[in-house]
Specification:
Layout (H helix, E strand, L loop, with lengths): L2 E6 L3 H13 L4 E7 L3 H9 L3 E2 L3 H5 L6 E4 L6 H10 L3 E4 L7 H14 L3 E3 L7 H12 L5 E9 L18 H16 L4 E9 L9 E8 L4 E7 L9 E5 L2 E5 L6 E6 L12 E2 L4 E2 L10 E4 L10 H10 L9 H20 L3 E2 L3
Helix pairs in contact: 4-5, 5-9, 7-9
Bound molecules: nicotinamide-adenine-dinucleotide.
The site of nicotinamide-adenine-dinucleotide has 22 residues, from helix 1.
Length: about 350
C-alpha cells in the first residue's frame, strides 16, 4: 500500500524527506503536497511537482493524506503534531520532537486518544558510524564498555536563523545533542542515573552553541557527549573504552580501528622509567606490541529507508514502531535534566 504524505514545513529537512522518499521509497510513501508559511517555499514545492496547500487546515483536511511530516522549527512541533493527530492523520515529527517532556506527554495523550501512529524522525539511529559502535558493543569483541565519547564538531560558528533563537528551540542540545543522546540511549537501555551538562554561548547570547554532557548509566557505562561549532581540529567522532580494548572512529568517513588485548596475562610492573619527549613516565609507557592486536572495524550495512518502511508497516498494523514512545520520552526526560544541570551548574541525580 502507498501512503500519501503531506509535509508541513518545506525547508531544508522537508525537502530532504521529499527527495529521499521519491528516490528510494516510492513503493510505500508518496508525498502529495506541502504547506509552508513562506511563499517561496510554496512556489518551490509547485516547481517540484507537488501540491502547495493554501493553509495547514487544507492539507490536514485532505482525506487522501494519511501521513503528515512535521518539519518546521522546533517550537511549532507540538501544536502541529496535535493538530495532525486530531485530524485523524498519522504523524512523523522531526527532532527534537518537543522542547520538553511535558509537551511530549501532551502529544502522546492525543495519539492514544485518536489511535493514530506518532513517531519521531531519529534518523541517526541508522548512521553507519553509530551502527559500527553498536556492533562492537553487542558482539562483546572487546568486552564490557565503560566509557564512550561521542563528539560532533564543526567550525561554522554562528547558528543560522531560528537555530540561534531561544523561542524557536535553537541551540546545539536540541539540534545535534538530541541525536547523539538518542543513539547512546538506544545503545544502552539501562536506567540513566546521573547527568551533567556544561553549555557554552560563545557567539550568541540566546542559546547554547557548544556543549559537553556526561550521562551515567546503571549498567556502569559513562557517556561523554560533546558538540562544538567552533572547532577547527576535530577529535575522533567516537572513542569507546571497553574492558578488553578500545575502538575509535576518527571521522565522518568511518575510518578507525579496534585495538584489543591479545592476551590478558599480567604484564607485571615495569619499574623502568621511560623518558619520552614530553617527560618521564612509568604508568603510561606504551605496552609491548605483542600484547595487543589491531583489528579493522566491523563491516556494517545500514539503510535509513528502514525508518519509513517501519512507519508504514506500523500504520498497517504489521510492525511495532522502531522509534517508540517510551524511548522518545526517556530522551526528553534526560534533555530536561541536562538543561537543569546547565542552569544550576550541578549534576542531576535521575532515574530515567
Ligand atoms: N533529523 C535530522 O537529521 C534533521 C536535520 C535537520 C533539521 N532537522 C529538523 O527539521 C526541522 C526543520 O529544520 P530545517 O533545517 O528544515 O529548517 P528550515 O528553516 O530549513 O525549514 C523550516 C521550514 O518551516 C517553515 N515554517 C516555519 N514555521 C512554520 C509553520 N508554523 N507552518 C508551516 N511551515 C513553517 C519555514 O518557512 C521553513 O521553510 C527542525 O525541527 C530541525 O531540528 C532534522
Amino acid at each position: 500500500m502507498i501512503h500519501k504524505m503531506g509535509i508541513i514545513g518545506f525547508g531544508g529537512m522537508g525537502e530532504f524527506h521529499f527527495s529521499s522518499i521519491r528516490e528510494k521509497l516510492g513503493d510505500c510513501v508518496e508525498v502529495k503536497g506541502v504547506f509552508d508559511v513562506r511563499e517561496e517555499r510554496q512556489q518551490h514545492a509547485l516547481e517540484r511537482g507537488l501540491l502547495a496547500y493554501g493553509s495547514r487546515e487544507s492539507l490536514l483536511s485532505d482525506p487522501e493524506i494519511d501521513l503528515v511530516l512535521v518539519a518546521t522549527p522546533n517550537n511549532f512541533h507540538k501544536e502541529i503534531a496535535i493538530d495532525a493527530l486530531r485530524h485523524g492523520k498519522n504523524c512523523v515529527c522531526e527532532k527534537p520532537v518537543t522542547l520538553n517532556s511535558e509537551e511530549l506527554r501532551e502529544i502522546f495523550a492525543v495519539a492514544d486518544e485518536t489511535g493514530r501512529i506518532f513517531t519521531v524522525h531519529q534518523n541517526r539511529r541508522w548512521d553507519r558510524d553509530f551502527r559500527i559502535i553498536r556492533e562492537i558493543v553487542n558482539s562483546g569483541i572487546i568486552g564490557k564498555p565503560y566509557m564512550v565519547e561521542s563528539r560532533v564538531q564543526g567550525s561554522k560558528r554562528v547558528l543560522q536563523e531560528w537555530r540561534g533563537r531561544r523561542e524557536n528551540g535553537g541551540g546545539m542540545i536540541y539540534d545535534w545533542g538530541i541525536h547523539i543522546l538518542d543513539q547512546i540511549m538506544w545503545l544502552d537501555k539501562s536506567k540513566v542515573k546521573e547527568v551533567y551538562a556544561d553549555t557554552f554561548s560563545i557567539f550568541t547570547d540566546e542559546v547554547d552553541d557548544n556543549f559537553k554532557a556526561i550521562i551515567k548509566f546503571e549498567s556502569g557505562l559513562n557517556a561523554m557527549l560533546q558538540v562544538d561549532t567552533n572547532c577547527f581540529i576535530n577529535q575522533p567522532r567516537w572513542h569507546l573504552l571497553c574492558e578488553d580494548g578500545t575502538a575509535v572512529i576518527t571521522d565522518w568517513a568511518c575510518n578507525g580501528k579496534i585495538v584489543k588485548l591479545a592476551d590478558d596475562k599480567d604484564l607485571g610492573w615495569d619499574s623502568v622509567i621511560v623518558y619520552t619527549e614530553a617527560g618521564p613516565t612509568r604508568t603510561m609507557a606504551p605496552r609491548p606490541r605483542e600484547t595487543t592486536e589491531e583489528l579493522p572495524l566491523p563491516d556494517v550495512k545500514t539503510d535509513w529507508c528502514e525508518f519509513y518502511r517501519n512507519v508504514t508497516a506500523a500504520i498497517e498494523g504489521r510492525e511495532e514502531l522502531i522509534v517508540k514512545h517510551e524511548e522518545s520520552l526517556r530522551v526528553m526526560n534526560v534533555i530536561d535534566a541536562l538543561f537543569e544541570s546547565a542552569r544550576t551548574g550541578k549534576s542531576v541525580t535521575v532515574n530515567i
